[in-house]
Structure formats: structure tokens, C-alpha cells
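Pasting two entries for a bug report.
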Amino acid sequence: MIKTVLKIDGMMCSMCESHMNDVIRNNFKIKSVSSSAKGGCCEIVSEERLDEGKLYEAVANTGYKLLGITAEEYEKKKRGFLWFARKQQSTRARVDALGLRWEREMLMLELMKSRRSTKKYKSEMPRLSDIDKIIEAGLYAPSGRNRQGAIIVAVTDKTVRDRLSAANAAVLGANTDPFYGAPCVLVVLADKSVNTSIYDGSLVMENLMLASHALGLGSCWIHRAKEVFEQPEWQEWLKSIGVEGEYEGVGNCIVGYPVEADFPAPLPRKEGRVFKI
């Protein structure tokens, strides 16, 4: 038996490890393979020595870099009672970890699928600690090259909130409250000097809405932030609260306690929206 160890640069996570293991299994006749992103290596056990040229080629095709190869005779160790005890412990820990991961994945998917736009709110202001959690979630949204070009302006002052609502309604050409009575408005604006900031701001909006739903609060994306914050009055207002630079409105995320606690069931997803190659 031969044990071959590949020193690899580029693996970052468990998915990278699985990818590398699959590449080795699909290209070589082996007994076992185990990759470690943290250790930057891949250990392979085979009956015969593996072709080093083919190993370099296989790793290169994955996009990772093979830094070196070592190979040595390998003798399978006898497994005593202590080995089986440790193996049992390791298996139990792995099962527990997989269970936790499965639970997290199911919770996240359920959160995404059950979120709805809320258009009826109680006047009661959400806890400020919850609003801070929602804002934090928004700040952790992905952004192009991690430049974090979007900002959040949290409006909980009723006077400012009502002024902002009136300005939004004027753009809409209506005499209603476009914020549906929600007491909190989280305005997302994009730095015009960052070419991906509108997309980045949209991701911030999504995180704000998902976090609101996770905390039992209603939310809704209200448009016309762009038109409102193009107005000189609101540009001056931004400067008055310390916002420097040129920003474009992306959206208003309204947040509050929903009047109706139960959310409607999701509508069927439209067909023909996924293409697999």
C-alpha cells in the first residue's frame, strides 16, 4: 500500500475538500482519500504509486495549486479497543455537527420561503435592540470586492419619519402613507463612487427584511428612495446628520409589528425560471 500526500494551495472550506476528494476518486484507482482545507493537504491511500504528472494535471484542473507530492509505503495499523472508542466518539461528533448544519440550513430556507411583505403595522415602535440587530444583519450583506459601499440611515424619530413619508407620497403623486403606518424606516443609500453599490444596497435590503422576519417583525421594501434623496432638501438633510459624499437612494425598508401575525401561504413559483446546463 502507498500513502501519497499532496500539498495544495487554494482549498478554503469543506466544499473545497469534498471537491478535491471527488476529483481524486474520479481520476485514480484508490483505497481512500481525505482532504483538509485547514492543513492544505490531501492524503491518498492506494495499492500502487500514483502518476505524479496526472496528479498535477488533475489538481490544476480544479483551480487549486499543487505545491508538492510525497509518497511512502503504508501499513494499515491494527485497530484496538481504544481506536474503536475514539472512532465512536468522532462519529458521534460528526453526526451532531451534521445535524446542527442540517437544522441551520432548514431554518434559513424556511425563513426565506416564509417571509412576506407586510402592509399593515401597529404604531408601537420595535425594541431598539432588535432594530440594531436588523441593522447589523444589513451591514453583513455581501458587497463587490468587499467595499461595503452602501449605508443605512435608521429613522425612528416620528417627525422625520412623517416628513420622509410625505416626500415619498409626493413622488408617488398620492395623499397616503407609503410606509403603511410602520414606525421605523431603514433607508439604504449607495455611494455613487462605487460601481457595484446599487447591487450591494439591494443585498443590504434583503438582509434587513430577512432579519426582521427572523425577529418576528414585519417589513417591506418601499421604492422612491432614489427620487426623494435626489432632492436638495434631503441631500442637505443627509449632510446635517453627518453623511458626506454623493449617495443614491436604493430603498426604504419599513419595519414594525405586523397587525396580522399570520403570514399568507406562498404563491406557486412560476415555471421556466431555471435553466440547467
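Entry 2 (this is the one that rendered wrong in the viewer):
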Amino acid sequence: MRLAICIVAYQFENDLMLSRMSMVRLHTSALILTEFRQIGGSRRGLLKLRSRPLIQYVFESIPDEVDELVVSVADESEAEEYREIVEQYLGSFVMSSNVALPKIVHGVLSEKRTDRVLVLPCDAPLLTVEFTTFLLDLTRGFNAAVPSSPEGDRNYFFSAYRAEEFLRAYEVTFNKDSMGDVVGGMRNVIYLNYRALRSLDPKLTFILRVNGPEDLRRAELLMQRR
């Protein structure tokens, strides 16, 4: 309940803040993660749903305010498989060499000279612009926005961060392989309880990830009902 109230309060305060900060232009990057196990011999993001690769649905959920689209891949061979669809959306690649997520985010924020980053997985075809915009809007009042289950499990695959504070926390964190440790060292972080996020979608379908054939069938059924 406290988080739900917090979000309502944020929405009210954010309207006021945005009116004051309307002239502030934040350079924004979107980081799409692809380094997940294959499904049926196919790269996760290239798996087809209604004749379109999963990653294309993710690209189309990215808000217009994003200036730069960056796709994280393990190596050049993976980049080649994604190249056609990524170039179609004017994106670029970063080679992660399968390092931990904090290091990938750190690399994008430091090398791309961006003010904030939106982090998304390549396998969430029901993502919505409403949700991704909401995450980015939160970074005007907070240094990070991270969904969280009622049990307290943080979902860093759908999150957004301000560059300066993430980089500061990363540098002073001992375990740089743990998003929990890095984000835990950040100041002014909002954790979004799933219960509060149900105001956007009662079934939370926008964070459904395709981890196997059953999830793919479920995503298609849910898409038909939209």
C-alpha cells in the first residue's frame, strides 16, 4: 500500500516537477539485453511471434524520447545474427563478452556519455510504451526505478537509471557483479511493487518474458486478447 501511495504521490509531484524542468533535456539510451539461453536453437530475441522477432516488439515499446538504442550481445557472431533488425531501428551494438549486468550498464553509461539508461530484455513482446515511459519519467525524480515482487525480488531486467549516481555507486561497490549491491549503494532509488504496477495492467503482461515454448504460446494468446 505504501508503494502504491508513493506512486500516486510521485505522479502528482512529477507533473509539477516536469513543468519546472520542461527545458531540461536528458540524453537517454535504451539498453536491450540479448545474452540469454537459446530456445530451440534460436537466439532468444530472434524467436518469431506472429512472424516477427521478439526483439522487434521490444524496440517498438521504446519511448520517442530515447536518443540511442544499444543492443548488448556476447560477441561478433551474435551481432551478425541481430544486425539486420538492429540496423532497421538505427541501433548499435556493445560487446559484453557475457560479463555481469552491472558491468554492461556501466559500460553504456560511461562510453555513450548519456544521462540515463532504460534497461530491457530482448524477450518481452508485450512491453508497452506506457510502462517504459513510466520508468523513464521516474528517473526525473529518482536516480533509479526498479520493479520488485511482493517478496522483495528486484527485477533489474526492466529498470532505468541516472548515469551519475549509478557510476558513483558502481565505483564504490565491492561486488561489481551484483546489481543488488550496486543499486543498493545508490541514493534515492524507487522500488516499484508489482501490486502498484497492476494499475498499468492488472495481469502485468508487460513484464512477461519468453523463456520457452509455453511462454511463447501464452504471449500469442495474450496478444490476441489485446
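Dev reply: Rendering is fixed now. As a check, the viewer should reflect this: The two ends are 28 Å apart (CA to CA).
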